[in-house]
């Protein structure tokens, strides 16, 4: 190759989720409800943290950024999936496919780093409470945010560097509802075994590595909490349980997809729907249900919004 893209394929065709009309109707209702609820829940979280001075702390700063990223998680694949459900010819342009892959991996890298930052925040708050405000300073919070964006962008660019110049000269059917990088590589008109391995190893290593860092962090935090028989222990464990639940929901499907030796198209589709629609909805629910301060702040914001609408 001379460095230019030799593709003659201008679009890719999705096989979608199912050909059953009843299941399509169910998925349309299910995905639409969860998508709208996810957008509203995460938007409310961002608005609440931004507008309530009581929540201007490192933990809520990171939570607001996680909710902002979850808005992207919901929007990268869900609208296209909903739009395509009842269409016979489900297509996406070559550029659209590459763009979708880019944002999927940017958001994935961002969320991993933010979850690690949130674990570090809880570690400092519980294990080094006297130094919390010194360590988790505004500069440290901005550092975590910048690092998350840099790592997310770098990870995505590295993944796309493997793919963008591949020759796509014939097959253009993807057995999926979105542009999945491993399946896209298989359509290239060249030997792709090593490339598939590199892409899978890259994402798999980052996912498993990040998960182990988080697992070790939370084990240390839990052991520290158990050693202290104070009144704040139950509150700390409640907060930790919310964080751990979100980590498991995010990394569980990822690790399964990239490390399970017996891939299944149907299972991959189910996990992809769960990741794209259910997890972004559950994150604000989990954090608000476990946090009285967040619930109170959300109620205040909702009352302000209602009174503002009445005035206008």
Notes on the protein architecture:
- This protein has helices at 21-51, 58-84, 94-127, 132-135, 138-161, 181-186, 193-227, 232-259, 265-289, 292-311; strands spanning 11-14, 90-93, 173-174.
- The protein is mostly helical and 312 residues long.
- A three-stranded mixed β-sheet has the order 2-1-3.
- Helix 1 (21-51) packs across helix 10 (292-311) and helix 3 packs antiparallel against helix 8 (232-259).
- The protein is globular.
- Mean pLDDT is 84; it is low at 1-5.
Strand order in the sheet with the most strands: 2-1-3
Total number of beta strands: 3
Oligomer description:
single chain
- Rg is 21 Å
**Main sheet?**
3 strands, mixed
User: How does the overall form come out from the CA principal axes?
Assistant: globular
Mean pLDDT: 84
Count of alpha and pi helical runs = 10
- The run of helices and strands is EHHEHHHEHHHHH
Low-confidence stretches: 1-5
What class would the helix/strand composition place it in?
Answer: mainly alpha
Secondary structure: elements and pairs:
Layout: E1 11-14, H1 21-51, H2 58-84, E2 90-93, H3 94-127, H4 132-135, H5 138-161, E3 173-174, H6 181-186, H7 193-227, H8 232-259, H9 265-289, H10 292-311
Parallel strand pairs: 1-3
Antiparallel strand pairs: 1-2
């Amino acid at each position: 190759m001379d460095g230019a893209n030799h593709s003659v394929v201008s679009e890719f065709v999705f096989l979608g989720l199912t050909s059953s009309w009843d299941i399509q109707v169910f998925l349309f209702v299910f995905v639409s409800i969860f998508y709208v609820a996810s957008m509203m829940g995460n938007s409310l979280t961002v608005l609440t943290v931004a507008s309530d001075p009581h929540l201007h702390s490192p933990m809520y700063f990171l939570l607001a950024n996680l909710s902002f990223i979850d808005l992207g998680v919901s929007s990268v694949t869900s609208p296209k999936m909903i739009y395509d459900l009842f269409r016979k010819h489900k297509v996406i342009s070559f550029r659209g496919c590459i763009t979708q892959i880019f944002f999927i991996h940017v958001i994935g890298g961002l969320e991993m780093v933010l979850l690690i930052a949130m674990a570090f925040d809880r570690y400092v708050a519980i294990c080094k409470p006297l130094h919390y405000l010194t360590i988790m300073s505004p500069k440290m919070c901005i550092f975590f945010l910048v690092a998350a964006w840099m790592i997310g962008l770098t990870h995505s660019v590295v993944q796309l560097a493997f793919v963008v110049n591949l020759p796509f000269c014939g097959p253009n059917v993807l057995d999926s509802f979105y542009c999945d990088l491993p399946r896209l590589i298989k359509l290239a008109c060249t030997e792709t075994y090593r490339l598939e391995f590199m892409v899978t190893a890259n994402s798999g290593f980052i996912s498993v590595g990040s998960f182990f860092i988080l697992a070790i962090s939370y084990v240390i935090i839990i052991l520290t909490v158990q050693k202290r028989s104070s009144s704040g222990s139950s509150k700390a464990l409640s907060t930790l349980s919310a964080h751990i639940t979100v980590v498991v929901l995010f990394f569980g499907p990822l690790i399964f997809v990239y490390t399970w030796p017996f891939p299944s198209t149907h299972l991959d589709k189910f996990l992809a729907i769960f990741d794209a629609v259910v997890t972004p909805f559950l994150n604000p629910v989990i954090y608000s249900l476990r946090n009285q301060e967040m619930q109170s702040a959300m109620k205040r914001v909702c009352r302000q919004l209602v009174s503002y609408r009445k005035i206008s």
